[in-house]
């Protein structure tokens, strides 16, 4: 049956994301806050994260491109990105922010540039994966099913 | 039935400069059936609370004009620590120094686990310190503080009466006890469904303690930084 197949794919896909460290348990917490009165909550919060991240990554590129690099400002941006990625459970993005802040602290430009690249990569990866996940969810709902996150709790 | 206050809804003011975190905390609080107002800065929080510059606890409290009239009743303030211009700590201080606002319980949230920061906030009068990301299990800890706040209010505005047996005795807390889990006999009633994903926290975040509120000090020693 189509619905079963879709739901199985959903579980397998998310299990892999957790297993490979792309997502942590905070992501499953988001689903606990979603219900009939707020059926789009997860998508909404994640969209905010996408917008926020893109803005911050752009700001970071520009800041690192200056002749006189303002490490305090860069650290502030990274701190923000670390916060928002942590809030939605985007673990790899969060971890790359941690390294980034270490390089800021010692004012190491090369290190910062390399971290920025890593942050960007991790961001693009998680963005693709979450978009694929939401597509799958749409299909499940369209096939008359509901998203089952109970098994994430195991 | 008993105290009418316990039946009415609680109003929480949430302060955070991050839009995502505001959205999250709002949902967390609404899920727990609280009325929520969110603002993005400490100054807006003070404005909402009706705070005025001269409204200090130390000044003459018998002053004539109660200009500090609180428009809306707020039963708890939950604020992020790291905010530009005014930190959560600054906000906490202003609230506790204000004769009209000091009884409002304040909870601090932070993404950073810094013992000296936590102690500072608790010493200044914060009820709890939550590590971000804040979860339902954290929000469940707010109930006793909200009850205490309401009860105090009633107590101040009505003649003393013997408390009904239904409510837990408010804690007269020496500073030490704030570092421990307060007893929560009432939690059973209104607990939203919680999954048993506590196990995950240890693995993911490398925090050995399941209690993510703050590091456990068992009330005896304070880590000094």
Question: What this model shows, in words?
Answer:
The complex is a heterodimer of chains A (154) and B (225). In chain A, 76% of the residues lie in helices and 0% in strands. Chain A is mainly α and 154 residues long. In chain A, α4 (71-88) packs antiparallel against α5 (91-105). The longest helix of chain A has 34 residues, at 109-142. The two termini of chain A are 25 Å apart. The mean pLDDT of chain A is 94. Chain B has 225 residues and is of the alpha/beta class. Chain B is built from seven helices and five strands. In chain B, strands 2-1-3-4-5 form a five-stranded parallel β-sheet, with helices on both faces. Chain B is globular and about 35 Å long. The relative contact order of chain B is 0.15. The model of chain B is unreliable at 1-7, 63-68, 167-211 and 214-225 (pLDDT under 50). The chains are: A mainly alpha (154), B alpha/beta (225). Chains A and B meet through α2, α3 and α4 of A and α1 and α7 of B.
Quick structural overview:
Chain A: The modification Phosphohistidine is found at residue 79. Chain A has 154 residues and is mainly alpha-helical.
Give me the secondary-structure category of chain A: mainly alpha
Q: Total number of β-strand segments of chain A?
A: 0
Largest contact between protein chains?
A-B, 27 and 23 residues
| Shape summary of chain B | globular
Order of helices and strands of chain B: EHEHEHEHEHHH
Low-confidence stretches of chain A: none
Helical amount among residues of chain B, as a percent range? 25-40%
- The amount of helix of chain A comes to over 70%
| Uncertain stretches of 5 or more adjacent residues of chain B | 1-7, 63-68, 167-211, 214-225
* Terminal Cα span of chain A: 25 Å
Write down the overall mean pLDDT of chain B: 73
